[in-house]
Amino acid sequence: MLHLSAEMLAAGPDKVDPITSAGSAQLGIAVLVGIAVLVLLITKFKLHAFLALTLGSLVLGAVAAAPLDKVIESFSAGLGDTVSGVGVLIALGAILGKLLADSGGADQIVDTILARASNRTMPWAMALIAGIIGLPLFFEVGIVLLIPVVLLVAKRGNFSLMRIGIPALAGLSVMHGLVPPHPGPLAAIDSIGANLGVTLAFGVLVGIPTLIVAGPLFGRLAGRWVDTVPPEGLIPQRPSEDLEKRPSFGATLATVLLPVVLMLAKALSDIVIDDPDNTVQRALDVVGAPMIALLAAVLVGMFTLGRAAGFGRDRLGKTVEKSLMPIAGILLIVGAGGGFKQTLIDIGVGEMILDFSKDWSIPTLLLAWLIAVAIRLATGSATVATISAAGLVAPLAADMSTSESALLVLAVGAGSLFFSHVNDAGFWLVKEYFGMNVGQTVKTWSVMETIISVVSLLFLLLLSLVV
Questions:
Q1: Number of domains in the chain
Q2: Considering the entire predicted model, what is its pTM?
Q3: Nearest to residue 82, comparing CAs of 367, 427, 403, 315?
Q4: Range of the domain at 355
Q5: pLDDT of 8 above 50
Q6: What is the mean pLDDT of residues 440-466?
Q7: Cα separation of 137 and 195, whole Å?
Q8: What is the DSSP letter of 326?
Q9: What pLDDT digit, counting tens, does each position of 389-414 carry?
Q10: Measured at the alpha carbon of residue 113, what is the angle toward residues 292 and 445, in degrees to the nearest 5?
Q11: Are 149 and 106 in contact (CB under 8 A)?
């Protein structure tokens, strides 16, 4: 099997000067101390996660001997970037979820699913739905669209929340890490020079069995490990009895799938048309942007859901207002998680991992996976791990066949999903939405991510023997 040489690795991505001159040993200690302080503040002293992440970032920078002003700047930049990128999507998703709940639309979807799926097939149905919805969507968008359905199905069907939630999360995560047009796989394809169609085909081929293992099968085990009740404000309630009618199943489903269709249309136009000056592609680039697609769904939902249930202007206004209050804490925690991640990146932890990897001599797919794992664990960002690792192993792709380069892309994507923990904004998003503590989130979400990463690598290694 092919191996990477030090000369090939030396042609990796351009480095960015870190904000500290600390050596590798000191950076390693800083990472361990920063994460330990973060976990201790949350678990032992019950400090709010937003404050713990803020203090943990300062401790991380201090131990790494970084100037305090630079640490604050890095944390603030990471927080701002995360909130600006994810915050609006969470808010729009919350509004759409509240419209679904108050109008009876969510009830309509849940009642239809419960009527057609048995207790045994429900987790599989959730995995399938999440996989389909997650194909063109960012992970965060998929979560906010699926949360109302997941919570209501679990409540009405008397299912363990984890037994329903884990398959849904697995479906979204597998698509996010392995299947273009998600940003990570697309960036890796571009960096390595792989064929998009072949990578997409292999991604789906590997993703299906991976989803089965990490979703319905692990969800059954996770449901025994963790029994949790989500925050009361996030559980969609039955609409009041004064509603004369509720939206039809078709109208409700069309509203929920509208952002999915718009984003998928944008992704397909980028692949098929691939001309920035083309009028159709420019239009789809606008309407298919996550924010615009979700905003369109909210506006359409006010008519297909709200008006269909007899809501007037005042009732619609109250629905929007009530939808935003429960997510304030979530936005702060997710933003602070992004700040902690950016501090790790800016003190040079990612580059430290890349430098260490130059001396490794192991099979190519495994090395690409390990590099992505190391960067993922250190920085918390799947996208950063994918882009950095892909840039590092890109020189070897020149000697690879089309199939081999596609497998290399997927190995990087698989490694980027390994063990999401406290430095990942997604960790906090899942924790808050599902009402778990840190330990429960590790035992469910973090373990699920690790299963996806390891199982997909095993299938990639097997696939590499026959293609």
A1: 1
A2: 0.74
A3: 427
A4: 6-464
A5: no
A6: 96
A7: 21
A8: G
A9: 887 777 777 778 889 999 999 999 99
A10: 65
A11: yes
